[in-house]
C-alpha cells in the first residue's frame, strides 16, 4: 500500500510546510475543491508543486508589454524635446545677439513657430520694461513726422504722486531744435538748450527733468504750507518758486512777527540755498532757537521744517 | 480834499458800475462797512459821488490823492479788461536776475523813473496772483502829473514779461528804461501781442493754457451732443477728420484757450498772382494789411482747420501766432518767401 505521502505528496508537503500558493489563496482553491472533488484538487496541487503547471500570468504579461511601449514612446518624445530645446537655445542666442531678422530662415519656415513665440516673449518683456521705465518717470518719445520731428513727454512727481506732465517737440532736420513746448517760460530752457541739446540729448532731457521735478516739488511745498500750516502766510512767491517770503507768528499773541525769506538759487533742488530771518525784534533772528530753525529750513522741505518749528514752539 | 483828489474820486465813482461799487469801496477800507450798507447804490452817479465824498471826508479827514489812486487801482486790478493791453519782453537778463525781490524792485523802479522825469507819480501794488501792478501818472517839467490818464503796468517778478496799458509813445522810452534797470535786464522790446483781456494775453504768453501734444495714450473722448447717425452710413473720412482735429489742436491749443481778438499781418511782398498786369510788374512791394478778428480768434482758427476750411498741415503763418506768442506780423519778401498764399481762406 502506498503511503499517504507517496500518494499525495503535494498534499502532505502542503500541509507540512504550509507555504504554498494554495494556502495563500484559500477561497478560490476551496471553491475548486468543492466543485471538482478533493482528489482532482490535490492532483492539481501536486502538479503545481512539481512545477508542471506554467507559472505565467497572461494579464501581467500584457502589462509589461504596455509599459515597454510607453517607455519607448517616452524615449522618443524625450529625444524630440531634446532636439527642440537645443534648437530653441540656439535661436534664443541668435535673437539675443540681435540677428533675429534673418529673412531666409523666415521664408523657409524653419523653426517659424518657435521663432514667433520667442519674439512675442521678447516683445512682452521689452514692453514691460518700457512700462516700468514710464512708471519710474522716464520720457515718452513719439515720432510726429517720421525722421524729422518727435515729441518728448517729461513727467513730474512729488512724494509718489504724479503732477504735471510737460512736453517738448524737437526738430531734427538740420540741428536739433525745440519747435514748441509747454515748459513754464521762466524756466531757463534756453540755457539748457545751449548747454546740451546738440551734443547730448539724454543729458539735456535729464537736466530739464531735474529742473522740472524740482519746480514741481517747490510748487507742491507751497501748496502744502498754505494747506497745513495755518499760522504762516505766504507773502510772496513767483512762477519759478525761486523766492518764498513767509510771515510767521510766534506762539504768543504779543510775540513779534517774523519775516522768513527763502531763496532757491539752485533750480534743480527742492531745498533753499539761503534763508534770511527778519523781525521787529532785532535779537530774535540771532536767538538759538531761530538759528536752529534756519539750519532746519535749509535741510528740510519747507512744509516739514515749519511743522517741526510749530511742534517745538518756535512758531504758532 | 483837494481838487485833483476830488476829480479822481469822481471819475472812479462814475466809472465803476453801481453793482460793483460797494464791493470796491469795501476792499478799499476807508469807509466803515456799516456806513457803506446804508448807502443807496441805485441813485444817480452824481448823488452817489456826493454821498461817497461826504462819507470819505467824515471818516478820514485827510483823504489824499494817494488813497483815491489806490481805490482806482483796486477797481482796475479787479477789472482789467477795459482797453488794449500790450505785451513787452525784457531781454538780456543779468546774472542776478532771479534775485529781484519786490521791495527792492519798488524802490529801484521809483528811483529810476523819478531820475528820468521830474513830475511823475508812481504807485505800486502787489496783487495776489504774484503780479506787481504799477500805476503811473505822467507829468512834465511844467505840469503836475495827470491823474486822469494813468498808465498801468503789470509785471510778474522774475519773468521777462511786462504788460502795458495806455502808454503814449512819448513816455515809452522812460518806462522801458526804468523797468530794464529795476528788473536787471539789458533791454526791453515790444512783443507784438495785444488784446483786450489782460489775463488772456498773459496766459497766452506764459503758455499757461492747455496745449495739445501727441501722446501714446488715447485721448479722453470729448463729449459731444451729436445727433444719432444712421448705422448704415459710414464716415469715409473719419480718420482724416480726426487727424485734422489733432493738427488744429496742436497748432491752436485745446479746451479753454486764451481769448485773442485779432491777428494782423502787414504784407510788404510782391504780388505774384496771374492775370493782373498792373499789380504784377511793379517795382514797389504790394502793401496790404490783413486783419483777422473774432470774439475768440484761436477757437475760430481751430475750427477752420478742423472743419477743413483751411489747409492742413497748418501754415506757419497761422501757427506762429501760438508758437511765437504774437498777433502782429510784418511779412516781407525776404523773410518768408511765398507767404501771401494760403492766407486767403478764412471764414
From TrEMBL, chain A:
Chief location of this protein within or outside the cell: nucleus
Any single GO CC term annotated in Swiss-Prot or TrEMBL for this entry: nucleus
Keyword Transferase set for record: no
Entries under InterPro entries matching the protein: CENP-O (IPR018464)
Any coiled-coil regions, as ranges: 64-91
Highest taxon, organism lineage: Eukaryota
Nucleus is among the record's keywords: yes
Alphabetical UniProt keywords: Centromere, Chromosome, Coiled coil, Nucleus
Matches recorded under PANTHER family: CENTROMERE PROTEIN O, INNER KINETOCHORE SUBUNIT MAL2
Family per record: Belongs to the CENP-O/MCM21 family.
Official protein name in the record: Centromere protein O
Record organism: Denticeps clupeoides (denticle herring)
Taxonomic placement: Eukaryota, Metazoa, Chordata, Craniata, Vertebrata
From TrEMBL, chain B:
Pfam families (alphabetical): CENP-N (PF05238)
Keyword annotations: Centromere, Chromosome, Nucleus
GO CC entries: chromosome, centromeric region; nucleoplasm
Compartments in which it is found: Chromosome, Centromere; Nucleus
Source species of the chain: Denticeps clupeoides
GO term, biological process aspect, one: chromosome segregation
Family: Belongs to the CENP-N/CHL4 family.
Family annotation (InterPro entries): CENP-NAC/CAD_complex (IPR052011), Chl4/mis15/CENP-N (IPR007902)
Protein name per its UniProtKB record: Centromere protein N
PANTHER family in UniProt: CENTROMERE PROTEIN N (PTHR46790:SF1)
